[in-house]
Amino acid sequence: MNNSTQPTPDTIDTNCQENVDKNRALYIFYSSVVVLEFILGLLLNITVIHLFIFKLKFWKSKTIDIFLFNLVLADILLLIGLPVKAYNFQQCSEEKVVCKVQLFLQFINRGASIAFLTVISIYRYFSVVHPGKRKVLRILKLSPQISVFIWVLLGILTIPAMLQSFIRCNSSEKDELTTIVLLREIVFFTQIFIPFFVLVYCSIRIIKRLKQKSVGDKTKLWRAMFLVTSVVLVFAVCFLPYAFTRVVQLKISGLVMKEEKVTVVKLFDGLLCLSYLNCLLDPILYCLSSSKFKKLYISMYLPFLLEKEQPESSEDTADD
């Protein structure tokens, strides 16, 4: 297909269906992974958000609880679109309205998930490394206002990308490079790479500060260091390979063999499935890592594990 021509739903559906038919077993596997992520992620996130609303009353709680609530909410809204993605992997449905809704959910809620993850890391950074900077901490404690600002900003950045006459749901075709497409890709890469560097910087500084502050309590130190490091590793595993593959996909030209294009598309779709794993791991890393929240969660949903739980200190340096 000539890249100078805007793809139509019919041609995209044909090329997508041809790709899926040739790799039926692989795309059934991708679809199964997405369905599994949807089921497990939705169950975990819904139970966590239930505790935030009815037990912790997050709006009356600490600043970080409001950010955590919005992080979990973003993950739930992202998970809602996964059944459509799973169906897409098998049937290549390109119904225009469904396509745009699914992409809107994917763009805005993945962006919100990453944004709140980043804000939480920045808040912890100033709380641990620079507790004396009261002006910055007072700003960060305006968590309701900051949360609203993040959602509005992401909505503004996402809506223009949905205004194209047609926007693809599958990875098998390349969009014509227009201003809208360029804006969409800039937003995509900005919301992955900049937060990653922020996370790495904040994590390194937090770990250094915790080592200086911790005297004798090695268990608490290692637990806090493990949490901070795990956040960076999960982000790197879920999003960086996906983003780098997207770079390769965008650079593919007409000189590249069709088989090589198909290989990149298959890899991109697989890494896209991996990126959804973030929705499953966020509640574990950010909510269940807190001793207080973990005990509340187990008492509510897994009471049979209570006898096995050992008493832990209620203080959690990395989580406050």
TrEMBL record:
One of its GO terms (cellular component) is membrane. The chain crosses the membrane at residues 27-54, 66-87, 107-126, 146-166, 186-204, 224-244, 264-288. Signal peptide: none annotated. It is a multi-pass membrane protein. PROSITE patterns: G_PROTEIN_RECEP_F1_2 (PS50262). Residues 44-286 form the G-protein coupled receptors family 1 profile domain. InterPro entries: GPCR_Rhodpsn, GPCR_Rhodpsn_7TM, HCARs. Keywords: G-protein coupled receptor, Membrane, Receptor, Transducer, Transmembrane, Transmembrane helix. GO terms for molecular function: G protein-coupled receptor activity. It is found in: Membrane. This is G-protein coupled receptors family 1 profile domain-containing protein. It comes from Cyprinus carpio carpio.
